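In the design runs reported in the main text, the only information available to the sequence generator was the tokenized backbone. The following block is the verbatim input for one such run; it is reproduced so that readers can re-run the procedure and compare outputs position by position.
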């Protein structure tokens, strides 16, 4: 089966905001306790940060990490998690029916982010609390000193402000499961007033309003419109959440979740623009896909809560397989191909609870299958996204008339001359022989690396005993000649081709002098 990808260096979709390679750490199950934080673990440092998880986080390449929830955010009192550990209260967490010791809180999270080399993203509790708590939390984190909450931070040993830029105004406020759920009118007004106060303290913030909890919510669309109509002037981005499922156990149908993610992004962008149009405003609200992943095996009630209010129970411990990795790889292509509107995205979550990293408390850590496409996209998705023309065979599924069998995204980094082609072959039976035509490149193209993620068994998983069952392997079936390239993409494979432009002429005015 043949396909063709055409790109032209003059046709740029958008710069790629590296925040699209974000992840998420919630006080949920063993994500914090037994995940990133486990004092006494053989690899833990003096602060209790697990060294093996830290190393895998760096390898994953996550750029920004959302904290402290999720649903947990809507009942969280941030004050409980700062100051002397011995004085921190133990409380019931109504989001996950667990006991929260508050041994780990905001300052530990900021320290952990610095050590991991990631940007922190925080959220304020608009469930049980409101704008007063939000402004105080922000003052604690970002104000240099001379005020009550800034001095409180300094008294806790943090002289310099944390300078957190990206803030979520609550979490999934439309969901009946949310502690303190709200109507769109209630939430939109609260988001407006909270954002206004937060900006008065720090005008440089990026503020994110809650969109719908997912695309199937009965209020989807109407929620986004009404919320944004009430807080348009004060917010920068709106959030999207989605969790993919293969409930019917049919690979064709499962692949359709990627196409629906693309639709979801375009629909929400249209609603943002409709709110702008009503105001005759040129402001463009951007999108933050701050929760996305595969999650359907570990989502029964037994996976979501354990009896007896335990501390850090094993919750949502989804074990990912090969087909889940293809879906995550396809979703990353979709996020990159919407780089003009999606400015941030967080794989939910980082470790143990629906995470690409899995640990045993007191034992080792390993990479789940979905770790690999994420790490490769985060490493090689740099610079800007080029527009792609893709000629590909299609297939009719039960829900999609013409589902393209080849998906692809191309990034180009003017600073280094690197070009990366990410692709997904969704055919269950056919290899795709793809020709890539690179137009407008005043350079010779050299192949740096060609990797494929493929396994004959779609249900293959990685585990403590066999951590490398599903790993990317070299694809030797790639030829480059001039500025065209031909690659064989195995059926049901996710691929990355990394190319280097080597200049054949002197760079002209405005061109970068990469090698
Ligand atoms: O990521 C798990 C949960 O899913 C989050 O806490 C919540 O926001 C979403 O419903």
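Verbatim output:
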């Amino acid at each position: 089966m043949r396909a063709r990808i055409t790109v032209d260096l003059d046709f740029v979709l958008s710069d790629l905001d590296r925040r699209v390679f974000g992840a998420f750490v919630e006080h949920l199950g063993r994500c914090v306790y037994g995940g990133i934080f486990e004092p006494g673990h053989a690899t833990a440092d003096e602060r209790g940060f697990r060294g093996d998880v830290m190393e895998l986080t760096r390898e994953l390449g996550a750029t920004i990490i959302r904290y402290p929830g999720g649903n947990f955010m809507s009942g969280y009192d941030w004050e409980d998690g700062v100051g002397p550990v011995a004085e921190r209260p133990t409380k019931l967490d109504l989001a996950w029916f667990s006991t929260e010791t508050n041994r780990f809180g905001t300052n530990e999270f900021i320290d952990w982010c610095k050590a991991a080399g990631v940007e922190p993203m925080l959220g304020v509790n608009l469930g049980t609390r409101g704008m007063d708590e939000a402004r105080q939390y922000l003052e604690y984190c970002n104000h240099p000193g001379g005020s009550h909450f800034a001095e409180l931070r300094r008294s806790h040993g943090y002289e310099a402000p944390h300078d957190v830029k990206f803030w979520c105004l609550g979490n999934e406020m439309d969901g009946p499961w949310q502690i303190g759920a709200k109507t769109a009118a209630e939430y939109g007004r609260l988001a407006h007033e909270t954002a206004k106060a937060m900006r008065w303290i720090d005008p440089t913030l990026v503020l994110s309003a809650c969109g719908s909890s997912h695309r199937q919510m009965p209020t989807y669309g109407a929620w986004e419109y009404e919320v944004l109509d009430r807080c348009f002037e004060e917010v920068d981005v709106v959030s999207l959440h989605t969790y993919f499922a293969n409930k019917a156990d049919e690979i064709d149908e499962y692949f359709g979740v990627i196409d629906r993610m693309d639709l979801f992004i375009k629909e929400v962008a249209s609603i943002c623009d409709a709110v702008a149009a009503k105001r005759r405003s040129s402001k463009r609200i951007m999108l933050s896909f701050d929760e996305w992943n595969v999650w359907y095996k570990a989502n029964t009630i037994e996976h979501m809560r354990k009896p007896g209010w335990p501390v850090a129970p094993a919750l949502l411990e989804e074990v990912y397989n090969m087909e889940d990795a293809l879906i995550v790889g396809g979703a990353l292509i979709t996020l990159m191909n919407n780089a003009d509107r999606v400015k941030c995205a967080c794989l939910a979550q980082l470790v143990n609870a629906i995470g690409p990293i899995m640990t045993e408390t007191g034992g080792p850590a390993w990479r789940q299958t979905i770790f690999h496409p994420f790490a490769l996209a985060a490493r090689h998705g740099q610079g800007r996204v080029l527009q792609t023309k893709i000629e590909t065979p299609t297939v009719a599924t039960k829900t999609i008339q013409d589902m393209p069998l080849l998906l692809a995204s191309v990034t180009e980094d003017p600073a280094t001359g690197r070009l990366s082609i990410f692709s997904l072959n969704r055919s269950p039976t056919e290899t795709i022989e793809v020709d890539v035509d690179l137009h407008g490149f005043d350079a010779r193209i050299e192949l740096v690396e060609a990797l494929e993620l493929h396994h004959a068994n779609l249900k293959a998983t990685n585990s403590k005993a066999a951590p490398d069952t599903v790993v990317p392997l070299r694809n030797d079936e790639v030829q480059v000649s001039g500025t065209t390239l031909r690659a064989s993409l195995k059926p049901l494979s996710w691929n990355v081709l990394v190319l280097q432009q080597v200049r054949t002429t002197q760079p002209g005015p405005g061109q970068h002098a990469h090698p």
